[in-house]
Write a structure and sequence with these properties.
single chain, alpha+beta, Ubiquitin-like (UB roll), Leucine-rich Repeat Variant, 4 domains, seven-stranded antiparallel β-sheet, 35 helices, 11 strands, PH-like_dom_sf, PH_domain, ELMO domain-containing protein, ELMO_ARM
Length: 846
């Protein structure tokens, strides 16, 4: 709930709905939306009377109006007005239900009009009241209990309205729908004469030339009957023509008509048999229907549908349209329809293996080879029709007896990536994808011949292990696309579907074009990964992720949809009225024409190039690191770390001391008290095994070079000095020296030689004021020796590398503990390893 101002006043927006204009004369000027400041001490009737006066509504009728929420359609009363947030949008609605009298009185009043012999005087007003009141479930229950449905059904079957669908007014159809749907105890099967009404509705919808107000109301009732699995469902499914329903899905219809036409088609496809579903493929293959659906999708993406707040300019606009529908709900119905269409178009091919004796498929395979390797077919000006004619005219049943010719054919099939060289058609026997992969590969060969030849010849120059197999890749790409497009999976009408299914409306033959583009992507990724034949599954998983992420990038943003579905009014607006053209402009600019650019094949290809192998690896590493960090932050893992920390610290201490016992050569700067010069020389430093003395031995540069070349730190010393640990007063690294303000010995130390590692040095101070400065080669050596001296002097290891090593070792031990708990035991082979046939020669001991 929004925060109230200091005077407890809130600001709301109120706009006009065309549906309340029935029975009222048209105003001279449009009824613009209004911004109202509500005072809790002023009754709502006063505000409603003021709105009716500004909109030129007679004061006598103003008592019959109320405010309703624009999104939930709930009425605003004196009891719930305190829950209104600032910026909420309302619309003015007829409301005898809440403001005129009690529900029982309203039901009796409406029944009196419905049963009156002079009913036609109140036809429009009564049905408008009944339609709005029927949306309330308690009113619907009272109306049914008072036998109101019998009076309502008589209006459908009396002599004047029988056998004439156009006399079924939209308000009459909406009233019947609202009463039955909102009262769940009433079933369509139990209504009297409902079969006659259904027949008239089916005839009216199949005409495809009626007004949108009639068609949307009729399809709303038919959809409810089929969706509730009535006994009349099969009759509606068998009688309604899908081709006529698709005629309502054009750009000129309002959103409600489009929505219920698509919903009715989808529910018929979900509950119909195979014959009914096959009619969808025939209907959607029509060029006119394809063009209409493409225009509809483009208008939806560009946010070009008509607004519900337009000034009424025709009779059709008198019916409230799209009150509870949004653009996202219409998109979901379009995506669901496309899923049904894709299933009927490709499922049978995907689940069918090619007949080995069918000449059609053998001709396709022969054409694949001839297009790649025959010189007479390498001309780029050959048309697709010529290639198709050659496939139908060639004689593939001719038996080849020449062994050299057979060997050449098998070599060509091997270069194409076939596994079975004697009978290549067997490669497509796996189901899925079956013959669908062969048809897609043949489409690639015919329509993208240059890319096809380039793909084959580029891989022909490589060894068999390094070649990207064309046929095997085509089968895998077809399987990936079928998985991503959910082909072969029965669509669920209650689930959300991805927006990228709209691509099939805008781009012709998108499935085949996507196959060609993804097959080229497979070859590109194969080269980037430097893969060989054993890495096929790894490349396949990477390509699957590339295609999936590229398709996910194609979609309408939720923010733009929410902006379109609901217009918020800021409390800071000071105007009392909002201009309707300005409001419409704000809503239509939520999605620009740039949104349509995301639903093009070029954008899809661009996304495939962006999600390359390098980015996929980087993203996988980031996800793995996040997963490990999440696991390591679990409470049980933190407890395990605390138990293992002391053991890990002990192991790290032992590693540091082992490094010191191994010994290392450092450039050493020695400074003694009273000496005028400092000594710069190479010295070999080593911790003795008793861990009580450190010896430093002077060595020559030649011996040091030989020891470094042989990776041996032990040298022949010229002089040897033993330093007991109790004689060491302090040990600091150069970072410690920069932080220490009491290090006086540094003042007496000489200058470091030029180009020395002064930034990575360790200074050892003895009790006799002698200092040794060890110039280390890198930070890690300096940290190891500094930590070692701190251990010997009973101090804490405070270097960065010590903490990093302990944390890495701690995480490794935790992972091992988790694997021991979760993973099954690894069974080691029991048999002995075989003795190699050739043993290495024995070398005499020196």
């Amino acid at each position: 709930m929004a925060t109230r101002t200091s005077n407890n006043k809130i600001k709301i927006g109120v706009h006009w709905k065309n549906s309340v204009a029935i029975g009222l004369p048209s105003p001279g000027s449009p009824r613009h939306p209004k911004l109202i400041e509500l005072d809790p001490n002023v009754p709502l009737d006063s505000y409603i009377s003021k709105i009716c006066d500004d909109w030129k509504i007679p004061q006598l009728n103003s008592v019959h109006y109320a405010l309703r929420y624009d999104d939930t359609h709930k009425f605003v009363t004196e009891q719930n007005r305190l829950q209104i947030p600032t910026g909420q949008v309302f619309y003015l609605s007829l409301s005898h239900l809440l403001f005129c009298r009690r529900k029982e009185d309203e039901v009796r009043d409406l029944l009196k009009y419905l049963s009156s012999t002079d009913y036609h005087r109140y036809d429009s007003t009564v049905l408008e009241r009944l339609k709005l009141a029927g949306e309330d479930e308690t009113f619907a229950l009272e109306f049914v209990n008072q036998y109101g449905l019998e009076h309502l059904l008589k209006l459908f079957v009396n002599d004047e309205k029988s056998n004439n669908f156009e006399n079924f007014t939209p308000n009459l159809l909406r009233s019947l729908h609202n009463i039955v749907v909102n009262q769940h105890a009433v079933d369509w099967d139990n209504l009297e004469s409902i079969d006659i009404i259904i027949d008239q509705l089916i005839v009216g919808v199949n005409q495809s030339k009626i007004t949108r107000s009639h068609s949307s109301s009729a399809m709303m009732i038919l959809y409810s009957i089929v969706n509730n699995e009535s006994k009349y469902s099969s009759k509606i499914i068998q009688t309604l023509q899908i081709g006529h329903l698709l005629d309502y899905c054009n750009k000129q219809q309002d959103m409600e008509t489009q929505y219920y036409a698509l919903s009715l088609i989808n529910v018929i496809m979900g509950k119909g048999d195979q014959i009914i579903r096959s009619l969808l493929v025939v209907a959607m293959s029509n060029t006119v229907v394809t063009l209409r659906l493409r225009e509809l999708v483009q208008s939806i993406i560009n946010n070009d549908e008509p607004s519900a707040n337009d000034s009424f300019s025709s009779v059709d606009n008198l019916v409230q349209s799209s009150r509870h529908l949004t653009r996202s709900s219409l998109i979901q119905q379009l995506c669901l329809l496309q899923r049904f269409y894709l299933n009927e178009l490709y499922t049978s091919q995907m689940n069918t293996a090619p007949d080995r004796h069918d000449s059609k498929y053998r001709d396709m395979i022969t054409e694949l080879r001839r297009s790649a390797f025959d010189t007479d077919l390498l001309l780029s000006d050959q048309s697709c029709q010529d290639l198709s004619m050659r496939v139908t005219t060639m004689n593939s049943n001719e038996t080849i007896t020449n062994p050299r010719r057979v060997e050449a054919l098998q070599r060509d099939y091997e270069r194409l990536g076939f596994q079975d060289l004697r009978e290549p058609i067997k490669d497509f026997q796996s189901v899925p994808p079956g013959i669908l992969s062969l048809q897609n590969l043949f489409y690639f060969c015919i329509h993208q011949k240059n890319d096809y030849i380039r793909f084959v010849l580029e891989n022909s120059c490589k060894t068999l292990q390094q070649q990207c197999p064309l046929v095997k890749s085509a089968i895998e790409i077809t399987r990936i696309l079928c998985t991503l497009f959910s082909i072969g999976i029965e669509p669920n009408r209650h689930h959300n579907h991805a927006d990228y299914f709209l691509l099939f409306y805008i781009i012709s033959s998108f499935f085949e074009q996507a196959f060609v583009r993804c097959l080229l992507l497979f070859n590109k990724t194969w080269k980037e990964m430097r893969a060989c034949d054993v890495d096929f599954l790894v490349v396949s998983s990477v390509v699957h992720q590339q295609i999936g992420q590229s398709l996910d990038d194609i979609g309408l943003t939720n923010s733009s949809i929410s902006i379109h579905n609901k217009t918020l009014i800021s409390p800071s607006i000071n105007q009392t009225t909002l201009s309707s053209p300005i409001l419409k402009t704000v809503m239509n600019t939520s999605l620009t024409s740039g949104a349509l650019q995301k639903f093009t094949f070029d954008y899809f290809s661009e996304r495939l190039n962006i999600h390359n192998y390098k980015d996929i690896c980087k993203r996988r590493d980031e996800q793995e690191l996040k997963r490990e960090e999440t696991v390591m932050r679990l409470p049980i893992v933190e407890t395990l770390k605390e138990r293992l920390r002391s053991h890990v610290e002990l192991l790290t201490r032992q590693a540091r001391l082992k490094t010191m016992k191994k010994g290392q050569i450092f450039m050493t700067i020695e400074s003694r008290p009273g000496a005028k010069k400092t000594k710069n020389r190479l010295m070999y430093w080593q911790l003795l095994d008793n861990e009580k003395h450190v010896q430093c031995s002077e060595t020559t540069s030649t011996a040091a070079k030989e020891s470094l070349a042989n990776n041996n730190n032990s040298t022949s010393s010229l002089t040897r000095t033993m330093i007991p640990l109790e004689n060491i007063k302090d040990v600091q690294s150069n970072m410690d020296q920069s932080r220490s303000a009491s290090f006086i010995v540094q003042e007496r130390s000489g200058k470091f030689p030029r180009h020395s590692n002064a930034h990575t040095s360790i200074t050892i101070s003895l009790h006799n004021d002698t200092t040794y400065t060890l110039l280390c080669e890198n930070d890690y050596d300096m940290s190891c020796w500094n930590d070692g001296y701190n251990i010997l002097l009973h101090r804490e290891m405070d270097s960065f590398y010590a903490r990093e090593d302990m944390e890495s070792l701690l995480n490794l031990l935790c992972h091992l503990q988790i694997l021991e708990l979760d993973s099954p035991m690894i069974a080691l082979p029991q048999h002995q390893l075989s003795v190699p046939t050739r043993l290495p020669p024995r070398r005499p001991l020196s």
